[in-house]
Predict the 3D structure of the following.
Amino acid sequence: MEQKVLLVDQQKCTGCRQCELVCSVYHTGASNPSRSRVRVVKWEQVGIYLPMTCNHCEEAYCVEVCPTKACHREPDKDNRVVIDKKLCIGCRTCIIACPFGQPFFDHQERVTVKCDYCDGDPQCVAFCNVKAISFVDADRAQMAKKKEAANRLADLLKQARG
Amino acid sequence: MISLTLIVHHEEQSSSGDYRVTTESIQSTRMTKYVSPQQEWKEIIAIYLYLAGMGAGSFIIGILIHWMGVTFNPLSIPFVDFLGVRLDLAKLPIFWGAIMVSIGAPFLILDLGIKWRFMYACLNPRTSWVARGFIILSVFIVFGLLILAKSLLPFRWLNPESGLWLIPEGIAFVFAFATALYTGILLKATKSVPLWNTPLLPLLFLTSALSTGSMAIILSTLGTGLLSYHSGAMKVLMIGEQIFVVIEGIVLYLFLSRRYKASAQGKESVRLLMTGKLRYVFWQGIILLGFLFPIVLEWISKYYQNSALLFIAGLSLLTGGFFLRLGLIQAGIKDQIPMQRLVEFQYGIKRVD
C-alpha cells in the first residue's frame, strides 16, 4: 500500500490549537490538549506556530528501543508506526529516543501514545480551518519538500547577490 | 541562558528617494525550551543504575577474591539459624552483590507506567537494550544468588568444593561485567541525548561500578572482620580501589570534555552540571564526595593506620557513585527538534549562546 504522510504547512498555521483539541477528543473522548497526539510549538514573541506530529520515520528509533514490541510498524495501514496499548509497559524509552519529541506519556492511561493517522482519517486534517495540515501521498510530500528547499535556496542566492 | 534574537528585514526610503532593505535585531527574549533536561527518567532510574552497578562491581571483586584463594579470618558470628537451617556466613561479605542488583531491579519496575506488565520487557531483545538488560540482569541475579546460596547453605550434596562450580561462577562473573556495562549502554542506546550518546558513558559507569564495588567489599570484609586492616589482601584491595577511582576520574574528565564539544545540547548538559542548577550535585556530590573526600581520607587513614576514617571515606565514595548517576540522568538534554531548527533558520531566529 502506498504510504501517506501528514504534511504541515507552517506558514498557514495560526496557532489556534484546534488540531490538539480534536485529536484529544477523537482518541480519549476528553477535550484536553495535554492528551493530544499533535502539539503546536509556539514562538509567541515572534508569532510563529508549528504543529508537530509523528513522522512515522523509515528508521524509527521508537520501534528500535521499545522492549515489548508495543511500538511497531503497520505496512498495510499507510506504513504507520503505532503503539499497542495492550503491550506498552510505560517505560518511556521511546519518548527519550525520538528525535522529534513525539510519543507522549498519557498520565491517565499510564502508557505512551502517538499519532496513528486516526485509522486513515486524521481529524487534525479534517478540522484545520486554514488547511495547515494535509494528509497526502508520500511522493507528493516529497515533491513539496523539494519545492520548498529549492525556493529557499533561490532566496538565499538572491540575498547573496545583493 | 539562551536568548532569541529576531532579525527583521524592512524597507526604508533614503533621502535620495531609493528604497533599501535594512536588517536589525529588535527583540531578545529568554528561551528555556532547549535547556530543559529530559523529564522522563528521574531519581528512581538513578537508584536502579546505582544499585545494579555497585552490586555488579562488588560481585566482580568478590569472586576475584574467592578465585585467588585469599585466607579469611573466622567471623565473630560464623553461623546463623534460619528456619531450622544453619547458614554459613563465611562468604557472605564477598558474595552479596547479587542481592543489591535484586533490590535495584524493582526500582525499574516502580518507574513503569503499568508495573504488572514488567515481564513484557524482554520481548524485543533483537533491537532493544531495555529488553537485553532485562535478560542480562535476570541471568546475573539467578547465577549470583546461586553462588551466594551455595556459600550459605550447609548441604553437602551441593558439593561446594567441586570444580564444576567454576562454570556458574564464570557465568555470573561475565554477566556481572555485562550488568555494570549495561547501566551505561541503556542510556547511550537512547541516541537522542547527546550527553549520553558516547561509548565513554558505559566505560564511566563500569569504572564507577568497580570503584564503588571494591570499596563496598572493603567495607563489608573489614566491618565483619573477614579481612583485617593490615592483611595483605586488604592492602591489594585498597590499592585496586584507588586505581579504579583514578581511572574513573580520568574517564569522567574525558567524558565531560568530549560531550562539551559534541553538540549544542551536549554543551548545555555539561554547563547544567558544572555551573547550572545541578552544580551542587556535580561539585559536592560527584567531585567532593565521590573523589576528593575518599582520596584524602584514605590517605590520612593510611598515614594514621585508622580504619574508622576508611569507613567514612567508603561511605563518601558510595554516596558519590549515586550522585554520578543522578547528575548524568538529570542533565540529559535532548537534541533540538530538526523542524524547530529549520523554522529558526527560516525566520532568522538566532540562538545566542
User: Anything to note?
Assistant: The first helix of chain B runs from residue 43 to 67.
